[in-house]
Amino acid sequence: MPLITSNKIVKDIEKAGALAMYVPPEGGYEGRYQRKLRSSGYDVLFITARGLGDVSSFLTGVHGIRPSHLGKTQIRTYFIPPLIQYRLASLPEKSKGLVVWLTEGKYLSRQELEVISQIPAKDSRVKIVIEVASGREVTWQPLTQAIAA
């Protein structure tokens, strides 16, 4: 594995706002890019795209969660704060922003990817990286180009 000596991913994510990443299926390479982002001043939120449900509500709005019903107990809904705004509120002052790193992005629909690609336009401190497919080596492109293809 070659060492990552350039800040190409940092420059590209600051320029594009949202990146579609193609990674080898065995994994391991993306951790180096996450370390590069952390050393550049970003906080990285690492989540999976499976089970997100309504993507815009889960990431940017207050949403309700119902635990599994186990019998004769009352069904309750717990309201959880938006994941991105919650993490942005706890960022240190010197931080550049938040990078939301989504794995298993291949399970998201085109419409969900479009919603996610619009999040950095609403808040410039938020950047998005989505692992959308497998590749022989780690490559990326702006998410808007990946959606259009």
TrEMBL record:
Q: What is its EC number?
A: 7.1.1.-
Coiled-coil annotation reads none
- Keywords, sorted A to Z: Membrane, NAD, NADP, Plastoquinone, Quinone, Thylakoid, Translocase, Transport
An example Gene Ontology CC term for this record: plasma membrane-derived thylakoid membrane
Superkingdom: Bacteria
The way it spans or sits in the membrane comes to: Peripheral membrane protein
Reactions the enzyme catalyzes: a plastoquinone + NADPH + (n+1) H(+)(in) = a plastoquinol + NADP(+) + n H(+)(out); a plastoquinone + NADH + (n+1) H(+)(in) = a plastoquinol + NAD(+) + n H(+)(out)
Record InterPro entries? NAD(P)H-quinone_OxRdtase_su_N
Where this protein primarily resides, as one coarse class?
membrane
Q: Where in the cell is it found?
A: Cellular thylakoid membrane
Give the GO molecular function terms.
oxidoreductase activity, acting on NAD(P)H, quinone or similar compound as acceptor; quinone binding
Complexes and interactors: NDH-1 can be composed of about 15 different subunits; different subcomplexes with different compositions have been identified which probably have different functions.
The protein's matches in HAMAP family, at most eight in alphabetical order, are given as: NDH1_NDH1N
Say what the protein does: NDH-1 shuttles electrons from an unknown electron donor, via FMN and iron-sulfur (Fe-S) centers, to quinones in the respiratory and/or the photosynthetic chain. The immediate electron acceptor for the enzyme in this species is believed to be plastoquinone. Couples the redox reaction to proton translocation, and thus conserves the redox energy in a proton gradient. Cyanobacterial NDH-1 also plays a role in inorganic carbon-concentration.
* Recorded family membership: Belongs to the complex I NdhN subunit family.
Name of the protein in question = NAD(P)H-quinone oxidoreductase subunit N
Supply the source organism for this entry.
Tumidithrix elongata BACA0141
